Amino acid sequence: EVQLVVSGGGFVQPGGSLRLSCAASGFTLSTYGMSWVRQAPGKGLEWVSGINDSGDSPYYADSVQGRFTISRDNSKNTLYLQMYSLRAEDTAVYYCAKDRTTVTNFWDYWGQGTLVTVSS
Amino acid sequence: DIQMTQSPSSLSASVGDRVTITCRASQGISSWLAWYQQKPEKAPKFLISAASTLQSGVPSRFSGSGSGTNFTLTITNLQPEDFATYYCQQYNNYPLTFGGGTKVEI
């Protein structure tokens, strides 16, 4: 059974940093692209960042470019999102999501999400 | 960036109804469109890819159509478990973008 377990969320002050993790099981992480998608409270879905199966092609939304870094450790079956210079508008539930096949940029499995709250 | 516009933003329906949700792209995206269903406090659930290909396990009362800039998600014979928010998403170009969502309410 495919499972994605997201961790690392919490409360952080503006300008702070946080690293999210997404532990994958039930499939071979190294053969799938992955993404992070977020949802601000009461709002819609926003794609944040994606990465290909080998990890050498990351992509970012303009809103996080230069502040967030996506990475993966296929040997640990884990996807990461390192977030720097956090702003109030980064407050959201962050989901990790698995590409449908190798690199499709749409997602058939999603993690449960973790809440990141940026506030002073 | 490609803007995705969904309409309506919300609708009221009854069990057994046929519901149609529209998604419009600001530029042509061929058939590179997916649909998701989201219930409160839950992660989105994948329904459809390539505008009309139903994910395995998704009931056949869900269907998608369209290409280019205009797309629809249709739910026939609406069931109680279908009351949720639906999102379209284009995967033709980066940045990947979602529609604003359509809430289907009783």
Structural features, described:
The complex is a heterodimer of chains A (120) and B (106). Chain A is mostly beta strands. Chain A has strands at 3-7, 10-12, 18-25, 34-39, 45-51, 58-60, 68-73, 78-83, 92-99, 107-110, 114-118. In chain A, a hairpin with a 5-residue loop joins strand 4 and strand 5. Chain B has strands at residues 4-7, 10-12, 19-25, 33-38, 45-49, 53-54, 62-67, 70-75, 85-90, 97-98, 102-105. Classes of the chains: A mainly beta (120), B mainly beta (106).
Offer a few descriptive terms.
heterodimer; A: 120 residues; mainly beta; seven-stranded mixed sheet; four-stranded antiparallel sheet; 51% strand; B: 106 residues; 11 strands; globular
Topology of chain B as a string of helices (H) and strands (E):
EEEEEEEEEEE
Mean pLDDT of chain B: 97
* Helix run count of chain A: 0
Largest interface: A-B, 23 and 21 residues
Strand tally of chain A is 11
What is the overall shape of chain A?
globular
H/E order of the elements of chain A?
A: EEEEEEEEEEE
Radius of gyration of chain A, CA atoms, in whole angstroms: 13 Å
